[in-house]
Task: inverse folding
């Protein structure tokens, strides 16, 4: 790709030797919706494949003649998949990329698998409990778990697929799944089930849960289980012995919790009906439409390989760099190389770059280059480690990438 830059002033480089403040004015969000090519509807599931493409599954927007299904985002362009392409049904409840490069899609009429070229549809005839697929999860052994129900027979439960054989566990209401550090699996639906590989333990509102209407579960770095419900009763944490409930009185943005993830920095993120809340173990931070979030009703969360948090809502997707507290708004293609590097970093973009900032992994600004003249910057003065590069375009849009200095 041809590199295009515009020069405005003389190049100068300032290396900040001491830790400084971020210097970010306000917050800027990266928002994507149907006008950008994203699939319509509620974004129920987000996953990222081995090639760093992001996949978004949607269903449920009844306010007009919208198109539901699946979108793939390569960082520049959205590609839509529907029943016209081989998807079993356009009502998508979840999406999961496995380690072999397959994309699994939970729909209201079958489990679809895409290998990058062709589609395969799996149903009850292949061993599933039912064709109404609710949720997907990949455990530490690489086994696929599928929460589903059979609308004809009334049966429901969870299926396990080890790559060869399907195993059914009936009566396990499953809309969300997680795994503890000890390997135990958790299933949330009507209450919460724990499975140690042999025995099942059930928790409901009679032995600790604040509500049986469970929509999201996740496990934190200390092996605590977090449970979000949609009854408006808050968020539950289980340490293996006792339950603790968190509500808006503690800092949660809303008491209806639809999505939970743990990020690579050990923060917990909670998607609610009034935005997304981050909890670092001590402090709560909330982002909503007043900050620039595309829509307040959060249905899915995903951390990508760059450490960005993708937030799926009723009205599209927002992307946040949680370290810098900045939302990447530069939608043009933006690449850096080599990565890792030892001395120089090349910038490849069609945007008109106005300034470049380098931040440490902890979010401290360590270098500033104003009015970039060249397509290459020297980073040999930086210590070995992980950094973020933030470029600002002439029209004040922001692009962020993570890189490594050897």
Result:
């Amino acid at each position: 790709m041809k590199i295009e830059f515009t020069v405005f002033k003389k190049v100068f480089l300032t290396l900040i030797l001491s830790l400084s403040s971020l210097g970010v004015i306000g917050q800027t969000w990266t928002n994507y919706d149907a006008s950008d090519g994203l699939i319509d509807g509620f974004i129920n599931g987000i996953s990222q494949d081995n090639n760093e493409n992001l996949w978004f599954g949607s269903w449920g927007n009844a306010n007009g003649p919208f198109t539901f299904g699946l979108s793939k985002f390569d960082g520049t362009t959205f590609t839509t998949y529907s029943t016209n392409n081989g998807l079993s049904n356009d009502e998508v409840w979840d999406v999961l990329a496995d380690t072999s490069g397959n994309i699994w899609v939970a729909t209201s009429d079958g489990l679809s698998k895409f290998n990058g070229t062709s589609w395969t549809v799996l149903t009850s005839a292949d061993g599933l409990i039912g064709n109404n697929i609710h949720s997907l999860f990949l455990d530490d052994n690489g086994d696929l778990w599928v929460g589903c129900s059979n609308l004809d027979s009334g049966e429901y439960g969870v299926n396990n697929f080890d790559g060869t054989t399907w195993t059914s566990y009936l009566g396990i209401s499953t809309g969300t799944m997680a795994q503890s550090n000890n390997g135990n699996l958790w299933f949330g639906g009507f209450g919460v089930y724990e499975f140690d590989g042999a025995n099942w333990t059930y928790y409901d509102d009679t032995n600790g849960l604040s509500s049986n209407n469970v929509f999201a579960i996740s496990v934190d770095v200390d092996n605590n289980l977090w449970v979000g419900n949609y009854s408006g009763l808050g968020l539950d944490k289980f340490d293996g012995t006792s339950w603790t409930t968190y509500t808006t009185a503690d800092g949660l943005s809303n008491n209806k919790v639809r999505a939970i993830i743990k990020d690579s920095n050990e923060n917990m993120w909670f998607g609610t009906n009034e935005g997304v809340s981050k909890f670092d173990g001590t402090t709560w931070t909330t982002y909503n439409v007043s900050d620039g979030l595309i829509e307040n009703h959060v249905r899915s969360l995903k951390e990508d390989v760059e450490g960005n948090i993708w937030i799926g809502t009723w009205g599209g997707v927002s992307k946040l760099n949680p370290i810098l507290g900045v939302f990447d708004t530069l939608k043009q293609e933006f690449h850096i190389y080599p990565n890792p590097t030892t001395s120089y970093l090349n910038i490849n973009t069609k945007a008109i770059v106005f300034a470049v900032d380098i931040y440490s992994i902890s979010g401290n600004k360590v270098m500033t280059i104003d009015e970039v003249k060249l397509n290459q910057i020297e980073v040999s003065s930086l210590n070995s480690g992980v950094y973020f590069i933030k470029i600002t375009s002439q029209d004040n849009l922001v692009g962020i990438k993570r890189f490594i200095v050897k």
Q: What stands out?
A: Residues 102 and 115 are 5 Å apart (CA to CA). The two ends are 26 Å apart (CA to CA). The domain at 12-26+330-405 is CATH 2.60.40.1930 (Immunoglobulin-like). The longest strand covers residues 12-20.
